[in-house]
Every structure is written in C-alpha cells, then in structure tokens.
Amino acid sequence: MSNLHEECGVFGIFSSERTDVAASVYYGLYALQHRGQESCGIVVNDDGIFRTYKDVGLVNDVFTPTVLTGLGEGNIAVGHVRYGTTGCNDRTNAQPIVINHIKGRLALAHNGNLVNSAELRGELELQGSIFQTTSDTEVISYIITKERLNAQSIEEAVSRAMNTVKGAYSLVISSPSKLIAVRDENGFRPLCYGQRSDGAYVVASESCALDAVGATLIRDLLPGEILVFSKDGVKSMTEHCGKVKESFCVFEYIYFARPDSVIEGCSVHAARARAGALLAIDHPVQADVVIGVPDSGIDAAIGFSKQSGIPYGVGLIKNKYIGRTFIAPGQSAREDKVKIKLNPVVDTVKGKRIVLIDDSIVRGTTSARIVKLLRDAGAKEIHMRISAPPFLNPCYYGTDIDSRDMLIACNHTVDEIAKIIGVDSLGYLSIPDAKRMASAGKCKGYCTACFDGSYPTKVSEISEKSKFEHKISEVGGTR
Known about the structure:
By secondary structure, the chain is α+β, with helices and mostly antiparallel strands. Helix content is about 30%, strand content about 25%. The strands form 6 sheets. Strands 3-2-4-1-10-9-11 form a 7-stranded antiparallel beta sheet. It has a 6-stranded antiparallel beta sheet with strand order 5-6-7-8-12-13. Strands 17-20-21-22 form a 4-stranded parallel beta sheet, with helices on both faces. Strand 7 (about 165-175) and strand 8 (about 180-185) form a beta hairpin. The longest helix has 15 residues, at about 270-280. The N and C termini lie close together (about 5 Å).
C-alpha cells in the first residue's frame, strides 16, 4: 500500500449562495487535467446533502452535460483528477472519497503520498477498519474521522490527524458546512486559494485553475496551514506551521505544473526559462538552433536560447490529443504514445546542429526515440540539455520514481547515457541550479531527494518495485 504513489490535482469551492458549483469544479479540473489523466470526480455539498460522481477517464469525457446537471446546485464542492501510477486503475480508486460517520459526512481529495501509510493502514485494520480502496487517501480520511469522534470541530480533528499522518499531502475537504484546505508541514505539494468577484472562495493545486473560474489568486497556503471557509468567513490555523524546514518539490517547477501557474510567488514559465539560461552557462555548445521537447521543455529552450544567443526554433510538433508519456502506466503504453505524440519539423532541423532541451531523462527510452526522430529528419548534430539533475533515488512523496533499477543515471555515466540515447553531447542541470531556478519566489526550501537522496522526512522501510513494469505489491492479502 505504501508503494502506491500519486501525483494528482485538487480543487474546492465555497460559496455563500446556493449555485452551480459543479460547473466551477469542472472548469477547475479541466485546468488541472495535466496533473492526472486516469480518473476524476466531483462531490457537491448541498446544505449537507452530498452528491457524488467519479469515474475513469478525462474530465471532459466523464462529466457530460447530463452528469453535471445531475449533480445539481450547492454551496460547497470538491474535485479531483488522479494520476494513478500502479494498482487498480478503476472507479474504486477515483476521488474524492466520501465518508459517512456518526458526526456527519466528509468528502476528501488528496494530492501527495504518505510515508507511513502502510503502518497506519495496518493499525486501522487491527482496530476493525475495512478499506474499500488501495490509496493512502482513505487512510487519511479514516484518521480524521477517528479524531473527529472526540474533537469539538472538523478543523480540530484535521489538526489532530496531522500529528499522525506523515509525508506529502495537500487536501481539500468538505464537511456539511465547511470547506477546509490543508497543506502538510513540509509543503511538498502546491496548494493556493483565491476569490471570485461574486465572493466565492476557491482552492486549487495551481493558480491556473483559479484563472479558469475567474478567481484572483490571494496566496499559497503556508506549509502546515489549515484554512477553514465557512459562513463566518476564512479562518487560518497555523499551529503546525514552522515545525520543520520547508521542502517544496522542485520537480513541480521542472515538470508537473503548468507554465502559466504561479507557485510561491514565482511564475513556472520564468523558473523554467531560468533553468534553461543556467544550462547555457554551465553547458555551452556551438549550434545553429535550440529546440524544446513539448511541452515542459519549451520554456527552458527559450531561456537557453536567450542566454546563449543561439536562435530558438520549433523543431517538434506535439499531438495535443495525446497525454503525457511520463505518466502513462506501463512501458508498452509509453512507447506506443511516443510514436504518434511528436513529429519533427524538417525545415528547422535538417542539416542543423541542434540543442535539444527536455525536462528529464528517466529510463532513456523516450529520449532515444526522440533523438532518432530528429536524426531521421536530417539533424547534423544533437546536443541534449536537461533542465533537471539526474534521477538517482526513489521518491516517497508522490512523484512516479520508486525504483533505482530502471533509472538510467544509476547505472551509467553521463557520457554513457549520451551514447545510449544517440546524442553528440549531454548536460544536466546541477542540483544547486535546480534550487536557484525559482529564486524569484518566496519558497524557503526545496526537496531534491530524487536527485541527491536527502529526504526531508523519515521514510519507512519500503521495498522498492518497478512501476515501469506495472507491478502490484500485496500487503495483508489486498492490492
């Protein structure tokens, strides 16, 4: 169970008036679709009556006009898009999770991954808890429910639960009368909130989702902060703030977030462009054109071009109807997608010395296929630059990297990797530069454990497995 990592998107809205909150969540999730493409869900709270719909598929496919109409109006709603990395890709694991208990209902959506999920799950099962899903989100909901039995309010129960759950979690929670937003003490995953002109408050993983529903960004939640939205206004609870060093996942800036989002006061686009500029300084090369691998390599390519003076060009065209290959479960699915996802622009690359910018190299298979596309299109030289350091360690906080076995940088030198993927030279962003790429922001610290092995929290004794082969581990007889 503790090996089931996810990178997802969450969204919530609180309105003082009964309105079509489902439509707002729909647009918000649409803006967050890049964070999860396997399943999605919406829970509408209509004065304590919860209406839920969730299923596998993209937001636009799952939430048809008929489905949205069926959710009806309300004044609170929460939504979720899921990126399942392994385990059951079915409706059961779709979120938000809805819990019915003696103190009332609870709807919860979660982005992140707990490091003590297996231990907590075992304890809860010994106490009689029966789990319906394979996600650690259900563990969180059970811990909150357990604390609620003796707490004076739902927010107090959430605060108590934070003493127990460890790891990465950005949450949106609906009780019958409140919307609650929560960010873990390290602040691993992004979470922000804003307000619309009609007074409604909106919480989302990224600011681009606030833009999608006409809300103005107010700020990011502090690491460890609990925000409570109710008829009495907005209440901030900060008793968990400042207990540990902030450790925001730097890979959010490198890859996960949308370039038009602003996280911790820093534009994601600007951060990626700065990474490209730093690459140009550390790994200069003589070339004719700089191109980026769509989409997250483009901003860094622009930055490299400006810093180096080498012209930027459009060298690869992306099929916009194909999802991200990095988060496609199963190696064969990724390889099939690469074949139809990208197509070279021959006029840009033929006979040229190319600087090719991408955000990362994980296994190396995708990079090799892209390089072959460019070689076949007539590229004279290909110098690859990566706007992230080499992946060397598992991530226990939500990124789909949990086995060293399939990480190419664990088994080969930079020169060997260059030869394997077929480029003339290869350069990675340094770890210090990865931390500097978002220096314009307000973040006080970053998690770079997948690059340097320096984990911000204690991690459990977790047996590694290869998600890349879509294996499922079994604990206590359940998947």
